[in-house]
Structures
1.
Amino acid sequence: MMKLTLDADALAAIVVAEQRGRVPFEQMTPQEARDVYRSGCALTGPPPRDMSAVEDGEWAGPGGVLRYRLYRPSLTPNLPALLYLHGGGWVVGDLDSHDGVCRRLAADSGCAVLALDYRLAPEHPFPAAFDDALAAWVAFSTQAASLGLDATRLGLAGDSAGAALAASVAMACRDALADTDTAAAELVQPRCQLLFYPATDLTAALPSYAEHALPNTRVFLKAATMHWFRGHYAPDPATWTDWRGSPLHADNLTDLPPTLLLTVGHDPLRDEGLAYAEALTQAGNWVSHLHLPNQIHGLLTQSRLMPASEMVWALA
């Protein structure tokens, strides 16, 4: 693929980080990376939008308590709602790192947004994050009415690793609903999925990984960073083609929710995102795909620095 020009605002952000001596995640411990990521998102993420209500709550999950945060842009009864799964390579990220993103998404879409604090690796490796995300969707969809939400208008959303989780949960819902012999018939099929620069292929075999492994690569998310994430979340290569972590490798991509999918050019995940958009389309699904060739991974959590993020929010 031809060399793509980097957006001027993205380059400026990278230069500032380089001047400040930014250390890549792969040179940190997981806890150090979590602390740096959380503080960085607070500085560069979308300015917090006022909400009519923000409520923290808990559900029982596969590994203990599942914490969530519900953002209501208005107190109108029966709002449609999205379950949001944060990015961070399954290793970093939490309710606070994506607070600005969830507020902005709720404000611009008019939907309530429920953000999930799923378990992180390496303390909780694959498939813990998927198990938590699926359990949260079950609770979210079956208890929506009790939360004052419209149980008939629920969707999934996420960025990066969170987008991978959203895509896999959508498949699990489809399969469960197709199996009339299970008790999962109560499960609600997502009405849509919003996948922002998704991780869909843990094999890391597509060309955009090689491009972002070069010594002169000047982006925040490099191939080495993704290998570090994968090493913590899915250390066993035998799991890399499991659809719960690699949606692109699923045997069946039919009958999935209408999808809004964002990819960016300067991203080791670029080619797997492009491939997933194409695979969904070829399987007969409705897909709206926005590709920003000059942008970098993490565009939404760096919205204060990236005016180009406005075109993404406009689609919400």
2.
Amino acid sequence: MDSKGSPLGYTTKFVKDSYVLCQLFPKAFRDREHLDHDKVRGLVRQLQEMLENIHKASILAVDYNELNFLVSKGFDKVFAIDVDSYQTAHYPAPALMESVRDWTVKNNAWTQLSDWYSFAVVSFSMFTGIHPFKGQYQGPKAEFKGRLPSDPDDDPFIVTRRRMMNNVSIFDPSVKTPACIYPVTVIPPAYRAWYEAVFAQGKRCLPPSEFGAAVVIVPKVQTVLGAAHLDITEIDSY
């Protein structure tokens, strides 16, 4: 604070003896450190609650990637770092890692739902040990959006970007995943349904409120005026 009590900045405690969140992804690490699925679910919930609190403060995280978090050695606490890059009403986010980017957003018009997309990528990687758009895609590529004639087919970053833009996730039957990851069956059912909606169907919606909750996707509603009755059409079922 300055002499008038106005805030000048912030300080945080130093976190020692911790892991960077991405270290928790590989199955070999989790087997070696005895990191079970229950503890992973607890960490995912912490990340989700943290993002909810960020949004309640009218802030966007934008770059919610796995390098911006530390995890305690006991796997019971998550610490956010690099938070000075969060976006406020008067300060645009200065960076975003492409692996968590919501490619449906244009002109850097980030929203809470684009934050939740980034959270979906990171939390999915925590559950399974793999990015949702990795694995070997064995289907046709000619119809991919975002494909440039100069794009090399063997550049993993460009391949991942194109698959993210076209919703070709590991839920696609044309994608072969390595044996060293956890199957999607380890994901709590409500979160698995949410991941499929986000990654495979291209929907943008909030995550489940709890592991046993249902995923609610709110459709765009067209207001009908001057009618004496309602036409009710089932949009989808979950």
3.
Amino acid sequence: SAFAQVLGQIGDKAPDVDDAAYFAMCFEAVQKLVKEKLVLSGHDIGAGGMITSLLEMCFANQDGGMEIYGASLPLTEFFFSERPGVVLQIRDSKLKAVDKILASLADEKHPEGVYMMRIGRYSRKRSVNILNTYRINIDKMRDIWYSTSYQMELRQTNALCARQRAANFAKQPLEFKFPKGFSGKSVSADSKGAPVAAIIREKGSNGDREMAWCLHLAGFRVKDVHMTDLTSGRETLKNVQMIVFVGGFSNADTLGSAKGWAGAFLYNEKANKALNDFYARKDTLSLGICNGCQLMAELGLITPEQREKSPKLLHNISHKFESGFVGVEIPKSNSILLKPLEGSRLGIWVAHGEGRFGFPAGNLKPNGKITSDGKTPDMEVALRYCYDKYPANPNGSPFRIAGVCSADGRHLAMMPHPERGLRPWNWAYYPTARRDRDTVTPWIEMFTAGVKWCQENH
């Protein structure tokens, strides 16, 4: 065990499962408790034993701790044994319901069902207090627990980012603010007379199925358009009002982020004409996500009338691929799709290696208006990360920029993935008060806004 190693010992008894049938019974019990929504949180007992599991349960938040009072075994064996087990947090008012479920799993060999020991309770103090004798500072232990990861990251990534993560990982909590009046319910999709949205994808694109579902759920009629449909002339986009360039790694990111994909438009007459004709119309919307955002930047589609002023997507300052769940805020802008979410702070997934926005010299202003002449906006900031520093700003974008839109608001390019957070269970963390009653998250609002605009401007 980890405890034996600390004492310079090897030991002669390895943790084991003596009764496979009972192990299965315990697993089934946990599944039932989760299904009945009786578990607030939980953690398996593994390396480091019970005490490590208890501390790790507290590391994910910024306040609160535990009072531990139950120990039927000697302290060393109770807190440091690595035998399989699970620690669960359950409301006092739900304990009888839990006891009933555990007892219901009894069989001839285990007439009492699944055994559970009550070992402590939640405390508002930021410590784990053991038997009123040992008080362990959670934040201090979290710093020690994280130090190994920090040392590894110093050797794997930009040292500046490694230091920023070590300084900020406990100081950048997810804090949400949902739009006023958000019901959490999806609208019924009615394809009759609905506007048409097309998903544009290339070899290596992904996220198209999730995006199609978002569009369909909001009320669009959805078309799947592969680049071969455009290059062959099978698809012209004439009957399409909204196009979405989805994320992924088109052509395995040949030549860099979306550059190979951009070439398929630039150097094919039919695809190029279909795209230019679409952007020349005034009744159209476009959205680029991740790789699609990179494509829109490469093709100048964020500033379709002045393409030389388009931003570029540069390598993350960490020098590595970043994947995680972060917070974003939606500032006031002309973005049609994000208009109903203005003022919100939401959670969202990111997954990219080149997501840092770079702008032509002189056209970036921190007030949200991006302009080259100091007067007329070339584009606007439509989405920002909630914090300026890494890792909550995962790519080092200036002024926390996560997405931009055209000056008229019709064309939106963003690196994070709203389609991957459509349902509450898609989020790494969703507000507890809404988790059981919401069927969709606020990200559905950007797609329903698109439907409404297309219907009004058809």
